[in-house]
Write a structure and sequence with these properties.
The protein is of the alpha+beta class and 141 residues long. The protein has a single domain (2-140), classed as Winged helix-like DNA-binding domain superfamily/Winged helix DNA-binding domain (Arc Repressor Mutant, subunit A). 35% of the residues lie in helices and 21% in strands. It has five helices and six strands; from the N terminus they run ααβααβββββα. A three-stranded antiparallel sheet has the order 1-3-2. Strands 5-4-6 form a three-stranded mixed sheet, with no helix packed on it. A hairpin with a 5-residue loop joins strand 4 (93-98) and strand 5. The longest helix has 13 residues, at 49-61. The radius of gyration is 16 Å and the shape is globular.
Length: 141
């Protein structure tokens, strides 16, 4: 996994630092979106909140991760696919929030439908969030 992380940082023209490697590792370890607090828990006391925040913002800017809005106006982060790049996110997929475990998943193969805006309106971003019970929770019930 470490080589995968190093390759991703190099491809994004970012220097390879311990904080960047550790934060990216948290995304590769988890199969769902992460909140800032989740990442803080994962990295422990090795890095302060500001370092984590700045690193996440750099990853968003470079097209490594994307943000996911939540109903309570917080932000979650998830890994982008290889087609994203600096300033060009291609994450027009549905996000799913499980009502049972509260995890948020990127449903990569479920595309956000086209939204036709009325005259005079111009959409800059469309987010679609679906809630229900995820496949992991369904398997245990």
């Amino acid at each position: 996994m470490e080589q995968k992380i190093i390759d991703l940082l190099k491809r994004s023209s970012l220097s390879i630092t311990d904080s960047r490697k550790k934060i990216l590792e948290s995304f590769f370890q988890e199969n769902s979106a992460l909140a800032h607090a989740d990442i803080e828990d994962y990295v422990g006391e090795d890095f302060d909140r500001v370092t984590i925040y700045r690193t996440l913002q750099t990853f968003v800017d470079k097209g490594i991760i994307h943000t996911i809005p939540t109903p309570d106006n917080a932000v979650l982060y998830a890994l982008c696919k290889d087609s994203c790049s600096a300033g060009h996110h291609h994450d027009n997929h549905v996000h799913f929030i499980c009502d049972n475990c509260n995890k948020t998943f990127c449903l990569e193969h479920v595309v956000v439908p086209t939204v036709h805006m009325p005259v005079g309106f111009a959409a800059s971003q469309i987010d679609m969030v679906v809630s229900g019970i995820c496949n992991y929770c369904n398997a245990t019930t």
